[in-house]
Amino acid sequence: MTSLTSASLAQQLAQTTCHPVLPKEFQFGIGLIVDLSATSDIWGKVTAGHSFADEIKRQAQVIQAKVEIGRYAEERTIYQDTDNFSDSQARTMHIGIDLGVPTHTPVFAPLDGKIFGFADHQTQGDYGPTIILCHQLDGLVFHTLYGHLSRDSLADLFIGKSIQQGEQFARIGASNENGGWASHLHLQIIQDMGNHTDDYPGVIDPAQADYYLNNCPNPNLILKRTDLK
After folding, report:
1. CA distance between the termini of the chain
2. Sequence ranges of the domains in the chain
3. Which residues contact 1 (CB under 8 A, 6 or more apart)?
4. DSSP 71
5. Are 71 and 42 in contact (CB under 8 A)?
6. Inter-CA distances, 209 with 72, 97, 205, 206, Å
7. Cα–Cα distance, 89 to 206 (Å, whole number)
8. What is the per-residue pLDDT for 153?
9. Spatial distance between the Cα atoms of 217 and 229, rounded to a whole number of angstroms
């Protein structure tokens, strides 16, 4: 096994055909790219009876979007009112990609892999049911994390279980089981898991961006949407 640099992994993934993580009509369909940064126009449309999630759904309906996309490396302030971030107010940079799709949408393995870890993180604002796969590309080892899954996605799993490219291994969870969020998939690439086994930060302090953006490169290397950087 060979240690990775962000550049070498990006080069490998750019040249690799990945199976869609979601059904093609979602992964490659019309997408609403959502801006949740502090200066976004979306906050001017939020009221006591109309949340930012409601506004995202409204905007998606206008353009008939099949998927709502939360951006990689975006700084957000939506986390600080949740229990999971109550003691980490500086964590505002999102280092995965969010894909807003209906509850129970199937999730497929982009590449051959094995179960590295899984858990049900039920603190409000956390991942909810989470699965991490370990992959190898020409001897290079890296991981993919899937957050906000359905609870039944964790059934019959064990560490080291083989998951074939294109195999459905999970489903998208509902709000009452996914950490309290609108239904979506949080997808993240992780090179070095460090001491983490069934979890990894998906939102980090921007002061640590150099390390984390290198260790967690853009998941669009797997998704391959042309409207994302």
Report:
1. 29
2. 6-32+67-223
3. 136, 139, 140, 141
4. P
5. no
6. 12, 16, 7, 5
7. 11
8. 98
9. 12
DSSP per position, 145-192: EEESB-GGGGTT--TT-EE-TT-EEEEBPPTTTTTSPPS-EEEEEES-
Residue 77 pLDDT: 74
Q: What is the pLDDT of residue 139?
A: 85
Parallel/antiparallel/unpaired status of strands 140-147 and 128-137 = antiparallel
Picking from 76, 41, 39, the residue whose alpha carbon sits closest to that of residue 181 is 76
Report whether 3 contacts 142 (CB < 8 A). no
Block mean pLDDT (10 aa), the chain, length 229: 67 95 98 94 93 94 98 81 54 93 98 98 90 94 98 98 98 95 96 96 93 96 94
Which position has the token pair 């179960």? 115
- pLDDT at position 207: 93
Q: So what's the pLDDT on residue 87?
A: 56
Using the structure block, give the residue that is written with the tokens 């003691």: 87
* Distances 176 to 83, 113, 148, 179 between C-alpha atoms, Å: 15, 29, 10, 7
Tell me which CATH code domain 6-32+67-223 carries: 2.70.70.10
List the beta bridge partners of residue 189: 144
* Pick from 172, 153, 218, 186: nearest CA to 84: 186
Phi, psi of 208 (to 5 degrees): -105, 15
Say how many CA atoms lie within 13 Å of 164 toward its Cβ. Answer: 2
